[in-house]
Design brief:
- The chain has 668 residues and is an alpha+beta fold.
- Among the domains are: 67-194, Methylamine Dehydrogenase, Chain H, CATH 2.130.10; 404-667, 3-Layer(aba) Sandwich (Rossmann fold), CATH 3.40.50.1820.
């Protein structure tokens, strides 16, 4: 503040040393506590691990890995190796092109694969469990594939030509520079684009017909795209449309026309998301427009197709004569097929059990079939195909995989405090009787406009088989019902997400799905804000809470501008440094700030020692304060058999905030 004397350097250094010492002591104390309590769970851990391995072998391994087809060749990845096979080979013969172990990257997993247009090079990104940054390996293909180049700290990359690779570099969770590198004759690397605004994150994409490579610079309020003509990859990128506040857009190309998914015009239901996991290409764009390549400014954009209200665009794929939109409406998934030849739109509803889409990577632009997978938390990925020629959906039987028949899916609506209806998806075993006696696991996220993760997990299927009920609460702050659903649950509306969660759990209990003493709440990352807030305000609703790398100290974290994500996160949580009203509001719901002596549920937290996104210090202090409050409450009550919750923190030396390999997640 003005007139305040600046602290001396010596005092600052003393404060840092004291803080580091406190952190180390807290960490050591929690590690000792974990070593004391974990042996009690060994028998249960062994049983669960064996069951999960059995389910993994039965479902996930049999579902087959995604394949990339280039003419007669098919590329696929299995067990840390990349293989090349012939499309018409029924014998299962395949050549190994790349092996993680052979190159000494035994602790890494393959994140991304890109094959050059003439198949002479292959670029692969490898990611370690312990780092957010990936390493890009470029292989020269042929009879004996060899490593051509290794590029550290890479986020995204695409081939602009047979021997020209564009890539972005990542530093402190930010991507702002784009480089071009070549591999034949005059080998060189040069910077082609540098983003100056710290709020923007840059990634690369290739249009489906490979005519343009797009440089996409996105903030949380606008976006901008630059085109690299793949016929002339050494020319400077050309701007499509300068960034305009509130306007987001994404580019595809067909026959000298740019096809633009955008929020330009009304209504706008879009959110460019830099998640607390990674950048998503999944967006909420409601208009498909087009413009000539030569005059691409928004004044020349013409409407091709507009989505219905409250419909969310999950994914989009362009083909030579058609495009497919994967959509979500009222929790149900369907696809719209737009024909550029007949100028017609066909809508197809997908199976009611489906909760997640996944497009197969890089189908050929001229193909007559689009392949994708559908799944749910308890339904392993199932392959489907849409035939443009037949205009129908075909279910693909890859191998003999047992079919899930005993799981019932229910969709409910809970009325929140302000009368808003909040969707819930419930799964339970059809054969379960007396559901009010069954254990219930409730899931919540509600941040960044991101949908609750409902992809298949072996542990969810195991719980269903053992009689559990699973509930997914699609509260405000998430993206399930578009941009307005997110806006209604962020910044000064964050408490609405808490009210939604409470309403969901209460409705589940009222309808006979379990009861408070058999209910557990699960959340990860930013989902820890709402879970922790519920734990403080309505602890009697649940018996246990399980958190993974949770964000539980919102106020202190948002006051520290030196942390890599604080500035851009202000659009989600607000700016407590400059806005006193915002500071008080965050303090009113922040899990760490509102711990008090009361009867808490049991809590199990997994955290990572080197987490770059959620500081470990905040979690350590949260656990210490929570345990102290629970013990203080218990000491006040001298009744026999008084409830003292288990509050356990498992700090993992390895692993990071992002998605991990199967082996690592199994150990967790």
């Amino acid at each position: 503040q003005e007139g305040t004397k600046a602290p001396s350097k010596r005092k600052q250094n003393t404060s840092i040393v004291t803080s580091d010492l406190l952190h180390k002591n807290l960490l050591k104390s929690e590690q000792e506590n974990w070593n004391d309590v974990s042996p009690a769970y060994r028998a249960m851990t062994k049983r669960i691990k064996e069951k999960l391995e059995e389910l993994h072998n039965m479902y996930t391994l049999n579902s087959g890995s995604p394949r990339m087809r280039f003419g007669e060749n098919v590329y696929f990845e299995e067990n840390g190796c990349i293989f090349l096979a012939k499309a018409d080979d029924d014998e299962g013969n395949a050549d190994i092109l790349f092996s993680i172990e052979d190159l000494g990257f035994s602790d890494a997993f393959i994140q991304r694969i890109r094959i050059s247009p003439d198949q002479s090079y292959m670029a692969i990104s490898l990611k370690s469990e312990n780092s957010e940054e990936a390493t890009c390996i470029i292989m020269k293909l042929g009879k004996f594939p060899v490593v051509e180049k290794v590029i550290p700290s890479v986020f995204s990359f695409e081939w602009a030509a047979n021997d020209v690779l564009y890539y972005t570099t990542q530093k402190n969770l930010k991507c702002q520079n784009v480089f071009m590198t070549t591999f034949t004759y005059q080998k060189h690397t040069k910077l082609v684009y540098a983003e100056q605004d710290a709020r923007f994150f840059v990634d690369l994409y290739c249009t489906k017909d490979r005519r343009f490579l797009t440089i996409n610079s996105n903030s949380k309020t606008t976006s901008e795209v630059w085109l690299v003509d793949c016929r002339h990859p050494f020319e400077s990128p050309a701007l499509v449309q300068a960034r305009t506040p509130g306007v987001f857009y994404h580019i595809e190309h067909r026959k000298e026309q740019l096809y633009i998914l955008t929020t330009y015009g009304e209504p706008a239901e879009y959110k460019a998301i830099l998640t607390d996991h990674y950048i998503h290409r999944i967006r909420y764009l409601l208009q498909l427009m087009k413009a000539p390549v030569a005059s691409s400014g928004k004044e020349n954009w013409q409407l091709v197709y507009a989505l219905e209200k409250k419909t969310k665009l999950v994914d989009f794929e362009m083909f030579s004569d058609d495009c497919i939109m994967f959509l979500k409406n009222a929790g149900h998934l369907y696809l719209n097929v737009i024909s550029f030849v007949s100028h017609s739109v066909q809508s197809i509803q997908l199976p009611l059990w489906a909760c997640e889409f996944e497009l197969e990577s890089h189908p050929e632009h001229t193909t007559s079939t689009c392949y994708f997978q559908l799944s749910s938390p308890v339904h392993p990925p199932k392959r489907f195909a849409y035939s443009f020629k037949e205009n129908n959906l075909i279910e693909q039987a890859v191998q003999e995989v047992p079919i899930i028949t005993n799981c019932h899916t229910t969709r409910l609506l809970a009325k929140s405090k302000d009368e808003t209806l909040v969707p819930i998806t419930v799964f339970h075993n059809k054969n379960s009787k007396e559901l009010h006696r069954r254990p219930l696991l409730v899931h919540v996220y509600g941040s960044y406009g991101i949908d609750l993760n409902m992809s298949f997990k072996e542990e969810k299927l195991m719980l269903i088989e053992e009689g559990w009920i699973l509930a997914y609460c699609h509260v405000r702050g998430g993206g399930e019902q578009g941009l307005s659903w997110h806006r209604d649950g962020c910044q000064h509306n964050k408490l609405k997400g808490l009210h939604d969660l409470r309403a969901c759990i209460m409705l589940l209990h009222e309808l006979g799905f379990s009861q408070p003493k058999h209910t557990a709440l699960a959340a990860a990352s930013a989902g820890g804000v709402l879970a922790g807030a519920l734990c403080n305000t309505y602890p009697a609703l649940i018996r246990a809470m399980v958190l993974q790398a949770p964000f539980v100290d919102v106020l202190n974290t948002m006051m520290k501008t030196h942390l890599p994500l604080t500035i851009e996160e202000q659009e989600e949580w607000g700016n407590p440094l400059e806005d006193e009203k915002c500071r008080k509001y965050i303090k009113s719901y922040c899990p760490y700030q509102n711990i008090k002596p009361q009867c808490y549920p049991s809590v199990f937290i997994t955290a990572y020692e080197n987490d770059e996104r959620v500081p470990l210090t905040g979690i350590l202090q949260y656990v210490q304060k929570l345990r102290k409050a629970a013990l203080e409450h218990a000491s006040r009550k001298s009744k026999r058999g008084n409830w003292i919750p288990n509050i356990i923190l498992d700090v993992q030396a390895n692993g990071s905030h992002c998605d991990s390999s199967w082996e690592h997640s199994l150990n967790e």
